[in-house]
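Known limitations

C-alpha cells in this collection are predictions and should be treated as such. Users comparing against experimental data should check residue numbering before alignment. To illustrate the layout, the record for Enolase-phosphatase E1 is reproduced below. The input appears on top and the generated C-alpha cells appear beneath it.
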Amino acid sequence: MTYAAILLDIEGTVCPISFVKEVLFPFFLKQVDALCSSQDPQVQRLLSQFEVEDVSGHIRGLVERDVKDQILKQLQGIVWENGYKDGQIKAPVYGDAIKFIKNSRVPVFIYSSGSVKAQKLLFQYVEFSDGTLDLRPLIKGYFDINTSGVKTQSDSYTKIAQDVVIKPHDMLFISDNPLELDAANSAGMQTMLAVRPGNSEVEDASKYNPITNFDQL
Ligand SMILES: CSCCC(=O)C(=O)COP(=O)(O)O
Ligand SMILES: [Mg+2]
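Generated C-alpha cells:
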C-alpha cells in the first residue's frame, strides 16, 4: 500500500475506547452543572444554541447516548482543558501509535468527532513515563465534525482531501469504525481497520485491512 498522507481516528485507533468512556466522559459529566451556570461568554454562547428547557439534562442525555453533537463536543473540549492542565487527565496513546507518529515519513492528520481543541489537548498531554509528551509538533493538521462534517459521510473525506490538497487515493485513513471506513472508501481513500482491545467486534473484519498495531504498516 503506498500513500502520501495518513489520516487517523482517535478513539479505538490511537487510544483505547475506555479512556474516552471511562475517563473523559465522566470527567465532563461531573462538571455539567458548573458549566450550565458558567458566566464565560463562550460557554454561554454555546449553551444558548441548545434550544431546550432542561439544558443540563439534555447535555447528560447526549453524553450517555454518545451523540456526536457539535455543540457538546466544543463544550467537552473546554471542560477537559482544565483536567489536562492541572494533571488530572493524561492521554494513554498506544506506544506503537506514538512510535508511528514520531517516525512517519508522510504527514499525519487527525480526524475525530472530538473537537479540534479536544484533539490538540489529547496530543499535548500524552502519558509518557512519569510525565507527558507533546506530540502536537508532529501532527500536520486536525479535522472534526465542525470543520469537515460527520465521519460516516463520504463528502467529509472528499472535503478533507481537498483541504489537505491531495488526491483522496493518496491518503490512508485508519479507524475502528467500519462505517467510517466505508465512507472514506467511497470518497476514494485507502483504508485500514484498527483492531484494539475493547473495540466493538467488526463483522467481516478481514475485508477492511485489519491491523492490531501500527508496526504492521
Ligand atoms: C478528541 S478526544 C475525545 C473523543 C471524543 O469525544 C469522541 O467522540 C471520539 O470520537 P472518535 O471520532 O475519535 O472515534
Ligand atoms: Mg474511533
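For this record: The pocket of L4RZE5RM (ligand 1) is lined by residues 9-12, 20, 24, 68, 73, 76, 112-114, 118-119, 122, 151 (CB under 6 Å). Residues 70-85 form the longest helix (16 residues). Please report discrepancies through the issue tracker.
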